[in-house]
Amino acid sequence: AQKITQTQPGMFVQEKEAVTLDCTYDTSDPSYGLFWYKQPSSGEMIFLIYQGSYDQQNATEGRYSLNFQKARKSANLVISASQLGDSAMYFCAMTLSRAGNNRKLIWGLGTSLGVNP
Amino acid sequence: NAGVMQNPRHLVRRRGQEARLRCSPMKGHSHVYWYRQLPEEGLKFMVYLQKENIIDESGMPKERFSAEFPKEGPSILRIQQVVRGDSAAYFCASSPPGQKDTQYFGPGTRLTVL
Q1: Distance separating alpha carbons of residues B100 and A102, to the nearest angstrom
Q2: Hey, is the C-beta of A103 within 8 angstroms of any chain B C-beta?
Q3: Is it the case that residue B90 has pLDDT exceeding 80?
Q4: What is d(CA A113, CA A20) in angstroms, rounded to the nearest whole number?
Q5: 20 to 30 A from A30, CA-CA: which of A114, A116, B20, B95?
Q6: Mean pLDDT, to the nearest integer, of B82-91?
Q7: Interface A:B, Cβ pairs < 8 A
Q8: Please, which pLDDT band fits residue B1 given cuts at 50, 70 and 90?
Q9: What does B45-74 look like in DSSP terms, one character per residue?
Q10: Nearest to A102 among B43, B48, B89 (CB)
Q11: Would you say residue A50 has pLDDT above 80?
């Protein structure tokens, strides 16, 4: 069965420093997509970054990058130069590409990130 | 282009009442997903719909829950005879045909059952 594991329930980082949020996944399907979403205290779900299983390069979006290690089945999110506004819950999620048009997301339990001034 | 809209944003119901949650996908989007987020947990997939069709309802509780996405109008998630355990945030996401891996989320509806 497909599964996403986020082992860090909560963590803190100093403002302007980089931080890595861990995510491991489990699937036997060769084709899948990995996502990171941010959920601030206001509750909305904000898309951050996407990595396809066949993508050769690690995905980057501004201060966000995804450290994709396929052999280890890990897809860690790296946030560079942390800002106070980065304080939020962060969720890793996976979708399977073999399922036709169905792209239902399988979610981890999330990591709560606090940024200290 | 307006984003995914959900209403109401907050809904309070007493046990035994019905809850109706509405989701208007982005213009041109024909795929809708519903997810539930219980307190202190990640999201769980509930149902995937295309216009007038339920494609995958494997995450829906067997009783009291139903969903529809009619030809015209928003998608509706309906919970009959609500219980306290239904208290959660319910998120809707939509995607356009062709961009299969991109889901755009609405702000969610927070249901509280008293």
Answers
A1: 8
A2: yes
A3: yes
A4: 10
A5: B95
A6: 96
A7: 63
A8: low
A9: EEEEEETTEEEE-TTS-SSSEEEE--SSS-
A10: B48
A11: yes
Q: Which residue has the higher pLDDT, A102 or B33?
A: B33
Rounded Cα distance, A8 and A112, in Å: 8
Q: Which of B58, B99, B101, B112 to mutate to test the interface with A (most CBs of A within 10 A)?
A: B101
Distance CA A114, CA A15 (A): 9
Q: Which of A37, A64, A67 is nearest to B104 (CA)?
A: A37
**pLDDT band for position B99 (cuts 50, 70, 90):** low
Q: Is A54 in CB contact (< 8 Å) with chain B?
A: no
**Spatial CA neighbour of B22 closest among B67, B71, B86, B80:** B67
Range list of β-strands (E), chain B: 5-7, 10-13, 19-24, 31-37, 43-50, 53-56, 65-68, 75-79, 88-95, 104-105, 109-113
- The residue type found at B19 is A
